[in-house]
Amino acid sequence: MSKPELLYYEVLDFQPDTLEYINKFFNVITLRDPNSDSDEILKRVKALFAPMGFLFDKCKIDKCENLQLIGSPTTGTHHIDVEYANKRNISVCSLKNQQRFLSKITPTAELAWGLVLAVTRQIPQAHDSVCEGNWNGRILGEQTPRMLSAMTLGIIGLGRLGSIVAGYGKAFNMKVFYYDPYINDDRHIRCETLHELAKLSDIVSIHAHLTKETESLVDSEFIHNMPKGSFIINTARGGIVDEDDLLNALKSGYLAGAGLDMLEGEHLPGFKERLSEHPLIKYAKNHDNLVITPKIGGCTIDAWGKTERHIVDLIIEELK
After folding, report:
1. Mean pLDDT score of the chain, rounded to an integer?
2. Which residues are catalytic, by number?
Protein backbone atom coordinates (compact mmCIF):
# COMPACT_ATOMS: atom_id res chain seq x y z
CA MET A 1 0.00 0.00 0.00
CA SER A 2 1.44 3.37 -1.04
CA LYS A 3 2.12 5.97 1.60
CA PRO A 4 0.32 9.32 1.48
CA GLU A 5 2.33 12.30 0.26
CA LEU A 6 3.27 14.89 2.87
CA LEU A 7 4.91 18.26 2.26
CA TYR A 8 7.68 19.17 4.72
CA TYR A 9 9.62 22.42 4.75
CA GLU A 10 13.28 22.57 5.78
CA VAL A 11 12.65 25.89 7.51
CA LEU A 12 10.89 23.87 10.24
CA ASP A 13 14.27 22.31 11.08
CA PHE A 14 12.82 19.16 12.68
CA GLN A 15 15.13 16.88 14.61
CA PRO A 16 16.73 14.03 12.58
CA ASP A 17 14.85 11.42 14.61
CA THR A 18 11.56 13.15 13.80
CA LEU A 19 12.31 13.21 10.08
CA GLU A 20 13.20 9.53 10.14
CA TYR A 21 9.91 8.82 11.91
CA ILE A 22 7.90 10.83 9.35
CA ASN A 23 9.46 8.91 6.48
CA LYS A 24 8.18 5.62 7.92
CA PHE A 25 4.59 6.71 7.34
CA PHE A 26 4.69 9.20 4.47
CA ASN A 27 6.14 9.79 1.06
CA VAL A 28 7.81 13.06 2.03
CA ILE A 29 8.25 15.94 -0.39
CA THR A 30 10.81 18.40 0.98
CA LEU A 31 11.07 22.05 0.02
CA ARG A 32 13.06 24.88 1.58
CA ASP A 33 10.01 26.94 2.63
CA PRO A 34 6.51 27.76 1.33
CA ASN A 35 7.96 30.31 -1.08
CA SER A 36 9.30 27.28 -3.00
CA ASP A 37 5.84 25.77 -3.50
CA SER A 38 4.65 24.80 -6.95
CA ASP A 39 1.03 24.36 -7.99
CA GLU A 40 1.83 20.80 -9.10
CA ILE A 41 3.16 19.80 -5.67
CA LEU A 42 0.36 21.51 -3.74
CA LYS A 43 -2.19 19.76 -5.91
CA ARG A 44 -0.74 16.32 -5.04
CA VAL A 45 -0.17 16.35 -1.31
CA LYS A 46 -2.61 14.94 1.23
CA ALA A 47 -0.90 16.56 4.22
CA LEU A 48 1.48 19.44 4.78
CA PHE A 49 3.19 21.29 7.60
CA ALA A 50 2.51 25.00 8.04
CA PRO A 51 5.53 26.83 9.48
CA MET A 52 5.12 30.12 11.34
CA GLY A 53 6.05 33.16 9.29
CA PHE A 54 4.12 31.97 6.23
CA LEU A 55 0.41 32.40 5.56
CA PHE A 56 -1.74 29.39 4.76
CA ASP A 57 -4.81 31.31 3.66
CA LYS A 58 -7.69 30.67 1.27
CA CYS A 59 -5.50 31.29 -1.76
CA LYS A 60 -2.92 28.72 -0.66
CA ILE A 61 -5.49 26.18 0.49
CA ASP A 62 -7.41 26.39 -2.79
CA LYS A 63 -4.29 25.21 -4.62
CA CYS A 64 -4.30 22.02 -2.54
CA GLU A 65 -7.01 20.00 -4.28
CA ASN A 66 -6.29 16.74 -2.46
CA LEU A 67 -5.29 18.16 0.89
CA GLN A 68 -6.79 16.44 3.93
CA LEU A 69 -4.69 17.86 6.75
CA ILE A 70 -2.55 20.83 7.80
CA GLY A 71 -0.14 20.28 10.68
CA SER A 72 1.58 22.90 12.83
CA PRO A 73 3.81 22.03 15.82
CA THR A 74 2.63 25.19 17.60
CA THR A 75 -0.10 26.21 20.02
CA GLY A 76 -0.96 29.18 17.81
CA THR A 77 -2.64 28.83 14.41
CA HIS A 78 -2.96 32.48 13.40
CA HIS A 79 -0.95 31.82 10.25
CA ILE A 80 -3.60 29.31 9.09
CA ASP A 81 -7.12 30.13 7.91
CA VAL A 82 -8.60 27.44 10.14
CA GLU A 83 -12.18 28.43 9.42
CA TYR A 84 -11.75 28.09 5.67
CA ALA A 85 -9.82 24.83 6.06
CA ASN A 86 -12.72 23.42 8.06
CA LYS A 87 -15.16 24.48 5.33
CA ARG A 88 -13.04 22.47 2.91
CA ASN A 89 -13.12 19.49 5.32
CA ILE A 90 -9.39 19.85 5.88
CA SER A 91 -8.29 18.99 9.41
CA VAL A 92 -5.88 21.27 11.26
CA CYS A 93 -3.61 19.50 13.74
CA SER A 94 -1.78 21.72 16.21
CA LEU A 95 -0.80 21.65 19.87
CA LYS A 96 -3.50 24.15 20.82
CA ASN A 97 -5.77 21.79 22.75
CA GLN A 98 -3.22 19.16 23.75
CA GLN A 99 -3.24 20.10 27.43
CA ARG A 100 -2.38 16.68 28.84
CA PHE A 101 0.66 16.37 26.61
CA LEU A 102 1.73 20.00 27.05
CA SER A 103 1.59 19.77 30.85
CA LYS A 104 5.02 18.11 30.60
CA ILE A 105 6.46 20.76 28.25
CA THR A 106 7.77 23.48 30.55
CA PRO A 107 10.44 25.63 28.81
CA THR A 108 8.14 28.59 28.06
CA ALA A 109 7.26 28.93 31.75
CA GLU A 110 10.93 28.61 32.61
CA LEU A 111 11.81 31.39 30.17
CA ALA A 112 9.08 33.61 31.64
CA TRP A 113 10.75 33.31 35.03
CA GLY A 114 14.13 33.88 33.45
CA LEU A 115 12.81 37.17 32.05
CA VAL A 116 11.41 38.09 35.47
CA LEU A 117 14.88 37.69 36.96
CA ALA A 118 16.61 39.35 34.00
CA VAL A 119 14.57 42.55 34.10
CA THR A 120 14.18 42.91 37.87
CA ARG A 121 17.84 42.17 38.67
CA GLN A 122 19.29 43.73 35.49
CA ILE A 123 21.25 40.61 34.66
CA PRO A 124 22.03 41.52 31.00
CA GLN A 125 23.28 44.96 32.08
CA ALA A 126 25.39 43.45 34.87
CA HIS A 127 27.01 41.06 32.41
CA ASP A 128 27.72 43.86 29.92
CA SER A 129 29.19 45.98 32.73
CA VAL A 130 31.66 43.24 33.69
CA CYS A 131 32.61 42.68 30.05
CA GLU A 132 33.36 46.42 29.82
CA GLY A 133 35.81 46.09 32.71
CA ASN A 134 33.61 47.27 35.57
CA TRP A 135 33.13 45.43 38.87
CA ASN A 136 30.67 47.48 40.88
CA GLY A 137 27.49 45.64 41.81
CA ARG A 138 26.42 48.41 44.15
CA ILE A 139 25.64 50.76 41.26
CA LEU A 140 23.29 48.20 39.75
CA GLY A 141 21.87 47.37 43.16
CA GLU A 142 20.96 51.00 43.72
CA GLN A 143 18.64 50.65 40.72
CA THR A 144 16.96 47.53 42.15
CA PRO A 145 14.55 48.75 44.84
CA ARG A 146 13.02 45.45 46.00
CA MET A 147 13.64 41.75 46.28
CA LEU A 148 11.10 39.49 44.56
CA SER A 149 9.77 38.20 47.89
CA ALA A 150 8.65 41.76 48.67
CA MET A 151 6.82 42.08 45.34
CA THR A 152 3.49 40.78 44.05
CA LEU A 153 2.99 38.68 40.94
CA GLY A 154 -0.05 38.95 38.68
CA ILE A 155 -0.87 36.20 36.17
CA ILE A 156 -3.09 36.85 33.14
CA GLY A 157 -4.41 33.44 32.14
CA LEU A 158 -4.07 30.69 34.74
CA GLY A 159 -3.91 27.81 32.30
CA ARG A 160 -1.03 25.37 31.91
CA LEU A 161 1.82 27.88 31.70
CA GLY A 162 0.23 30.49 33.94
CA SER A 163 -0.18 27.90 36.68
CA ILE A 164 3.46 26.86 36.43
CA VAL A 165 4.68 30.47 36.63
CA ALA A 166 2.35 31.14 39.55
CA GLY A 167 3.98 28.19 41.30
CA TYR A 168 7.40 29.70 40.66
CA GLY A 169 6.16 32.92 42.25
CA LYS A 170 5.05 31.02 45.33
CA ALA A 171 8.46 29.36 45.53
CA PHE A 172 9.98 32.86 45.65
CA ASN A 173 7.62 33.76 48.52
CA MET A 174 5.60 36.17 46.39
CA LYS A 175 1.92 36.89 46.83
CA VAL A 176 0.30 35.66 43.61
CA PHE A 177 -2.84 37.11 42.01
CA TYR A 178 -4.49 35.97 38.81
CA TYR A 179 -7.15 37.00 36.33
CA ASP A 180 -8.85 34.27 34.34
CA PRO A 181 -12.63 34.34 33.85
CA TYR A 182 -12.67 30.60 33.12
CA ILE A 183 -10.69 29.25 36.08
CA ASN A 184 -10.99 29.15 39.85
CA ASP A 185 -7.89 28.09 41.75
CA ASP A 186 -7.78 28.57 45.51
CA ARG A 187 -4.00 28.20 45.57
CA HIS A 188 -3.78 31.83 44.41
CA ILE A 189 -5.80 35.02 44.83
CA ARG A 190 -8.43 35.52 42.14
CA CYS A 191 -9.14 38.99 40.73
CA GLU A 192 -12.60 39.66 39.32
CA THR A 193 -11.40 42.24 36.79
CA LEU A 194 -8.29 42.80 34.76
CA HIS A 195 -7.73 46.24 36.25
CA GLU A 196 -8.02 44.86 39.77
CA LEU A 197 -5.14 42.56 38.88
CA ALA A 198 -3.16 45.49 37.50
CA LYS A 199 -3.55 47.52 40.70
CA LEU A 200 -2.33 44.62 42.85
CA SER A 201 0.63 43.47 40.75
CA ASP A 202 4.23 44.64 40.78
CA ILE A 203 5.01 42.13 38.03
CA VAL A 204 2.47 40.94 35.46
CA SER A 205 3.18 37.79 33.44
CA ILE A 206 0.94 37.10 30.43
CA HIS A 207 -0.17 33.57 29.56
CA ALA A 208 -3.36 34.07 27.53
CA HIS A 209 -4.19 33.06 23.97
CA LEU A 210 -4.38 35.79 21.35
CA THR A 211 -8.02 36.24 20.32
CA LYS A 212 -10.18 39.19 19.32
CA GLU A 213 -11.05 39.54 23.02
CA THR A 214 -7.42 39.59 24.20
CA GLU A 215 -5.99 41.80 21.46
CA SER A 216 -4.40 44.88 23.12
CA LEU A 217 -5.62 43.56 26.47
CA VAL A 218 -2.62 45.15 28.16
CA ASP A 219 -2.93 48.77 27.06
CA SER A 220 -2.20 52.21 28.48
CA GLU A 221 -5.15 52.03 30.89
CA PHE A 222 -4.02 48.66 32.22
CA ILE A 223 -0.39 49.79 32.54
CA HIS A 224 -1.30 52.95 34.43
CA ASN A 225 -3.43 50.95 36.83
CA MET A 226 -0.27 49.07 37.78
CA PRO A 227 1.95 50.55 40.52
CA LYS A 228 4.58 52.94 39.17
CA GLY A 229 7.89 51.10 38.80
CA SER A 230 6.33 47.74 37.93
CA PHE A 231 7.21 45.18 35.25
CA ILE A 232 5.48 43.35 32.38
CA ILE A 233 6.53 39.93 31.07
CA ASN A 234 5.05 38.49 27.86
CA THR A 235 5.85 34.98 26.66
CA ALA A 236 2.34 34.46 25.27
CA ARG A 237 1.55 36.17 21.96
CA GLY A 238 2.44 39.47 20.40
CA GLY A 239 -0.67 41.60 20.05
CA ILE A 240 -1.92 41.00 23.59
CA VAL A 241 0.26 43.92 24.69
CA ASP A 242 -0.29 47.24 22.94
CA GLU A 243 3.30 47.87 21.89
CA ASP A 244 2.92 51.64 21.46
CA ASP A 245 1.51 51.96 24.98
CA LEU A 246 4.23 49.71 26.39
CA LEU A 247 6.95 51.74 24.69
CA ASN A 248 5.53 55.02 25.99
CA ALA A 249 5.39 53.63 29.55
CA LEU A 250 9.01 52.49 29.34
CA LYS A 251 10.17 55.82 27.92
CA SER A 252 8.33 57.80 30.61
CA GLY A 253 9.70 55.60 33.39
CA TYR A 254 6.24 54.60 34.55
CA LEU A 255 7.20 50.98 33.95
CA ALA A 256 10.53 49.93 35.44
CA GLY A 257 11.00 47.29 32.78
CA ALA A 258 9.62 44.62 30.50
CA GLY A 259 10.66 41.22 29.19
CA LEU A 260 9.23 40.04 25.86
CA ASP A 261 9.56 36.77 23.99
CA MET A 262 6.91 37.79 21.47
CA LEU A 263 6.29 40.78 19.23
CA GLU A 264 3.17 41.65 17.31
CA GLY A 265 3.04 40.20 13.81
CA GLU A 266 5.98 37.82 14.31
CA HIS A 267 4.01 35.09 12.53
CA LEU A 268 3.50 37.20 9.39
CA PRO A 269 5.62 37.19 6.24
CA GLY A 270 8.29 39.88 6.14
CA PHE A 271 8.51 40.32 9.91
CA LYS A 272 12.17 39.31 10.16
CA GLU A 273 13.16 41.54 7.26
CA ARG A 274 11.68 44.58 9.05
CA LEU A 275 13.11 43.68 12.46
CA SER A 276 15.73 46.42 12.70
CA GLU A 277 13.04 49.07 12.23
CA HIS A 278 10.76 47.76 14.97
CA PRO A 279 10.23 50.58 17.53
CA LEU A 280 10.72 48.32 20.55
CA ILE A 281 13.93 46.83 19.18
CA LYS A 282 15.28 50.28 18.31
CA TYR A 283 14.49 51.36 21.88
CA ALA A 284 16.09 48.25 23.43
CA LYS A 285 19.40 48.94 21.66
CA ASN A 286 19.93 52.05 23.77
CA HIS A 287 18.02 51.35 26.99
CA ASP A 288 18.49 48.89 29.83
CA ASN A 289 14.87 48.35 30.91
CA LEU A 290 13.71 46.15 28.03
CA VAL A 291 14.82 42.58 27.29
CA ILE A 292 13.59 40.97 24.06
CA THR A 293 14.18 37.34 23.05
CA PRO A 294 13.31 35.86 19.61
CA LYS A 295 10.45 33.52 20.55
CA ILE A 296 12.69 31.05 22.38
CA GLY A 297 10.05 30.01 24.92
CA GLY A 298 9.69 26.47 23.62
CA CYS A 299 13.21 26.23 22.26
CA THR A 300 14.96 23.37 23.97
CA ILE A 301 16.10 20.33 22.03
CA ASP A 302 14.11 17.91 24.17
CA ALA A 303 10.93 19.99 23.89
CA TRP A 304 11.36 20.22 20.12
CA GLY A 305 11.73 16.46 19.82
CA LYS A 306 8.68 15.73 21.97
CA THR A 307 6.39 18.29 20.30
CA GLU A 308 7.47 17.32 16.78
CA ARG A 309 6.86 13.64 17.45
CA HIS A 310 3.50 14.42 19.05
CA ILE A 311 2.23 16.46 16.10
CA VAL A 312 3.32 13.70 13.70
CA ASP A 313 1.40 11.16 15.78
CA LEU A 314 -1.68 13.42 15.65
CA ILE A 315 -1.38 13.64 11.88
CA ILE A 316 -1.01 9.85 11.50
CA GLU A 317 -4.05 9.25 13.71
CA GLU A 318 -6.16 11.83 11.90
CA LEU A 319 -5.40 10.35 8.47
CA LYS A 320 -6.27 6.78 9.45
Report:
1. 95
2. 237, 266
Residue 224's identity, in one-letter code, is H
228-231: long-range contacts (C-beta < 8 A, 24 or more apart)? Answer: 228/254, 229/145, 229/202, 229/254, 229/255, 229/256, 230/201, 230/202, 230/203, 230/204, 230/255, 230/256, 231/116, 231/119, 231/120, 231/202, 231/203, 231/204, 231/255, 231/256, 231/257, 231/258, 231/259
Question: Which residues have a Cβ under 8 Å from the Cβ of 243 and sit 6 or more positions away?
Answer: 263, 264, 279, 280
Domain 5-98+302-319: homologous superfamily in CATH:
NAD(P)-binding Rossmann-like Domain (3.40.50.720)
Strand 5-9 to strand 91-93: parallel, antiparallel, or no bridges (unpaired)? unpaired
pLDDT score of 143 more than 90: no
Minimal CA–CA distance to 53: which of 95, 12, 7?
12
Residue 190, burial from CB neighbour count under 10 angstroms (0-12, 13-18, 19+): middle
Q: Is 120 helix (H, G, I), strand (E, B) or coil?
A: helix
Q: What is the pLDDT of residue 23?
A: 97
Specify the pLDDT at position 1. Answer: 63
- The pLDDT value recorded for residue 231 is 98
pLDDT exceeds cutoff 80 at 267? no
| Domains 5-98+302-319 and 107-292 fall in the same CATH topology | yes
**pTM for the full model?**
0.88
Q: What is the CATH number assigned to the segment(s) 107-292?
A: 3.40.50.720
Domain parsing of the chain, residue ranges: 5-98+302-319, 107-292
Looking at this protein, which amino acid is placed at residue 70? I
pLDDT of residue 268: 80
